[in-house]
Amino acid sequence: MQFAEQLAFPTEAKLGRNHSRTNDFKDLFYVRRGVIRFDMFWGEELNLKVVLKVHRADHTCEHFIVDTDAYDVRWNQHRRVTRDFFVHPFPMKHGHVTHVSFSFICHLHGRSIPSQHDYIFMESHNFDDQNPQRREVTLHHATANHYHTHELGADELQRDMDWINHHFESLNLVPKFTKGQPYHPYHPKPYIHDRINATIHRQLERPDQRQSIKVCVDCIDDTDFTSHLIHAHACGVRVQCIVDWRKMTLTNSDNYVRLKRSGVELLGVFCTPKDR
Questions:
Q1: What's the 3-state SS for the chain?
Q2: In order along the chain (276 residues), what is the average pLDDT of each group of 10 residues?
Q3: For residue 78, what is the domain's CATH number?
């Protein structure tokens, strides 16, 4: 099996001072900015994403996806640096950070290649120290990386797309409009709960066939929705939620606490070129 270390290797990790941020409710949070740099053993067409893992004292682990940008580009090599990402060291409703680790995924010629190892970004004593922190990334304390992508062949994907183009009704897409009223008959909330119930029913009827629910929203802070997703997960459905990092980090919401502790795959995304 090919590993991403044949194409790239992390070299440097940096952690900034405390940085104040507010959320939509004007709640104040103190977070710390992080940066990871990589040497890339290929031209600029080689892309890389970081999978950041924030381990806490209450045994929760928050996962984030971080984009990178190229610099010092040559025809056969270049360097990459992560976009701005932030870690909340001492949240109100979670344990403090015990350590932050990361793996990475290289993308080249339509394929994704995971790293073999999970590397240490920073440890608890780095967050206890209020001064900026810097460390060289090495294999010291590195562990096996278990976060892999599911790779599909281009021919298989093309066959599926050709079939969908001629059987569009198979997608079962239903347009819904909120009208700004949660109890309006055209609001998507009842429909979403019906779809979750149907997925749970299929999973319980056919436990050998793993069902899945994938949610990609800006914010998932809805008690009914959160409870239903956690129930689906408990029934054996694979649940994955992708949200903006701010809504997942800059919050004191019990709904996010329950999601993080439930085992549901919750991913925060850092993708803006600079902090906004």
A1: CCCHHHCEEEEEEEEEEEEEEECCCCCEEEEEEEEEEEEECCCCCCEEEEEEEEEECCCCEEEEEEEEEEECCCCCCEEEEECCEEECCCCCCCCCEEEEEEEEEEEECCEEEECCEEEEEEEHHHHHCCCCEEEECCCCCCEECCCCCCCCCHHHHHHHHHHHHHCHHHHCCCCCCCCCCCCCCCCHHHHHHHHHHHHHHHHHHCCCCCCEEEEECCCCCCHHHHHHHHHHHHCCCEEEEEEEHHHHHCCCCHHHHHHHHHCCEEEEEECCCCCC
A2: 94 95 92 97 97 96 96 97 95 93 95 96 96 96 91 86 90 71 73 92 95 90 94 96 93 93 94 64
A3: 2.60.40
